[in-house]
Amino acid sequence: MKLLTSVFLRNGRVRPAGGWFTLACVAFLVGLEIAGRFATSDLHDGLAAFMLIGAGLLVAVRHRREPLPWIVRLAAVGRRLVTSTAWQRYDHGIDLRGVPPVPRRSPPVVFAIVAGFVAWGAVAAGLWVAFPAGWRVVGFYSSYTLYLSFMIALWGALLAVTFIGVFVPVAVLDKWLRQWLGDTDRRGAELAAVVGYAVLVSAIAWVVPPAAVLVLCLVVAAVAWVAYLPKGNDGAALLWRSSADKPVYAVPLRRVLAVIVGLTALLAFDVLLTSCGGRLFAPPRGDDTMPVTALLGTVTAWLMPVLLCVLLVKLFGARSGDPARRTPPTLHVSGADANAVRQAARIARKWGWSVRAVPAPREPGQVRIEVVEPACSEATEFNPRWPLKVSLADLQTGVVKERLDRRDEIAVRRQLFRGLQKLFKRASAFKGPAGGGFWLAPHWWFVEGVGREDADAAGEDAPPLVGPAYARILPARARQHAHAVLRATHVDMIFIEDGVTFRNLERTLRVLTELYDVHGGKRPAEEMHFRGIPKVKVMIHEYEPGNPFRSDLYPEPKFDDLSRVRVLHIFRDRGESEELIDQPFDFSSTPAPAPAGAMW
After folding, report:
1. In whole angstroms, what is the distance from residue 82 CA to residue 399 CA?
2. Which domain holds residue 544?
């Protein structure tokens, strides 16, 4: 009993909770600092890092069972540090309006991060110049524990990039194999590709120094900076402000992408330079003290070119599939006289059209004409049969160009509505537990597909994006036509409440297309244009700071307070009036019904 009491008592007082555990942690750190002075390579550092991670996990488990006072104090210090940097937080939103324009300016923290990356690269280069065999000597003359913490972060970053560098090409390969082989078993081909790719990259990393990859990272950062410089007016921008009482600024999405790519390239350059700077231009040294880090960094470096190629393909696909671009219509020309067909194709190309002439088959969405003699021409017929029979004289005088333009617009519009119907059927299957709706915006390149408004509340039953992507269902020119119509009528997004049928959605969209046709895209859509559509209530609201959507009868879609978006809401008609009308107090002036025949 005395022995047990002596363990828990010290000078007549109870030892604080976790006292022995804390002493053990201090002893471990002291032993780690001493052992670090005898380590000779980063292989030893790796073993020590595993021990440090294990000790950290043990401390976390012990603190969860019984809170440790020093952990509580460290957590309080960390919270104060986070609170002290609250001035670097930014409110953000999306600007799809662009009118009136918001001052363009990037957050100052972006330039601070760039300066930090440049300083990091300079320090890493200086360390490798001072210590060609490896800069782990820094941990010898400083805190070995802090040195291990930095190495853990560095190795974690290298392993993360390695995982991404292997996973992304495999995902692209799986997509290609799915297109080529269908639903057949592809595991064997994928395994062979992964193993072959890993062996190839490892062989290159063992023989070829990674200096070219670091130069490639700097080139990407420079190209991103060049792409950042132009001050063109984009259709969408990111809004931000440092606090509620500060002005709001905008950054075009083109600049946002350039900043992300540039910062990622600088970060990759710094990480690779820090890890494998000693073997940038030569094979490994015999007295290298960081062989594991250098090898891991070199392997990671040679995974970057493939990642860059995938990134370029994605950016090119986003650019080529941007609905804001305009792809010329295609004219399919046929006829018995080959010379006349060639002349007709030449005339159509002068209009700016793409041409496919026989014997090339016609594809969906192409306008068809047949070149005939002037006596057989149907260019002026009210209801002709297609392909339209026209003569060279009709094409040369431009009589049928307007008719062909309208025919192409009708065909593209039909493709748009057919695609939206397929998307609507898939999206309408997902409904939130308390009602809600989904967002429709096929005219923005950065919106992948139909999204649920209440995805967070609905859980897994309602994913954020429902149905296939717009690019898979809607042809490119159909999305371009949607962009032309919606931008001309000043509709940035469409919110559709659950329960609204596609027929009513189609009626609403046809009002927009008619408004676009009648006014030539010069009149914005207003709520009065949608009166008379049965079973729906159409409301238009401009979201902007200080002007949220409020309604007692209809659901309120969630939106960032800082965003500027003009939304077309399509609700189920509640059959009630939103305006309260007061009953008159004086009924003396109310007309009374007169008996029949009183006026005779």
Report:
1. 70
2. 413-572
